[in-house]
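hey so i finaly got around to running the thing on Molybdopterin dehydrogenase, FAD-binding protein from Amycolatopsis decaplanina DSM 44594. pasting the sequence first so u can double check i didnt mess up the copy paste, my clipboard has been acting weird all day
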Amino acid sequence: MKPAAFRYHRAHDVTDAVGLLGDLTAAGEDPKLIAGGQSLMPMMNFRLARPTALVDLGPLRRDPALNSFRRNGFSLTIGAMVTHRTVEVSELGPDFDVLSRAMRWVGHLPIRSRGTVAGSIVHGDATAEWCLLALLLDAVIVAEGPRGPREIPAAEMFRGFYTTAVEPDEVVTAVRFTRPSPRAALTEFARRHGDFAIVDAAVSLDGEHGRLTGGRVVLGGVAPAPVRVPEAEAVLDGGVPGPELFAACGAAAAAAIDPPDDAAGSAAYRRRLARTLVTQALHEAWEKGETR
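ok and heres what it spat out for the 3d tokens, dont ask me to read them lol
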């Protein structure tokens, strides 16, 4: 299929992009930004998205600030135009290497080579790996708009099906991950490798000396947006890491969610997937930490 008709604009820098979005919105247009286009274009081709105008951010790839990593104390900032593949092959250190390891789940190599970190987060797919990682690692999304820059905590970012807190006239310039997690993992299940996940799970573990002091459990594909599961996280607090605890955490996660029934699978099927994936991810996260 082909997309519905739209107007094409090319932004030369962030200020230009913000200005174009503002002008188009004021004129009654429904503009969308396009960076890698790996999420937006398929939706346009199937006419699931029908923007009246596209603002191409391609020239912004030349901006070093938008195409680089920056460390500041315990945080890691990733520029908005950094691709999945760049993250995949980069050495991010033990505190954030879950980001690199998780990239193997993002589509296929051509998709990872074009798609961008910020584009995936702004797209707001409930099963997108970057959306789960943003919640897991307390990301802060930095957006620039006509009112100046602002920061959006990941906990406030995802509002429903493909809906985020980024305003129509704002451009995301960076994503800052503020929660180092040496023991973390993401896993998922799809019908075929590279397909959209039916359910995915991201976890992290906190603790030392053989006892946990807490952890995080984030699920995708079980609600309109990715969600933390506090009932499962409570199981980890004070527990002794091992198969029994991890299985109990997976069971708690499955019991706490109310997933949808749809063509991809029933609610009961998604609960079973959630239980299995959380358990598997916890094992991987603990083993990664132990090998360091």
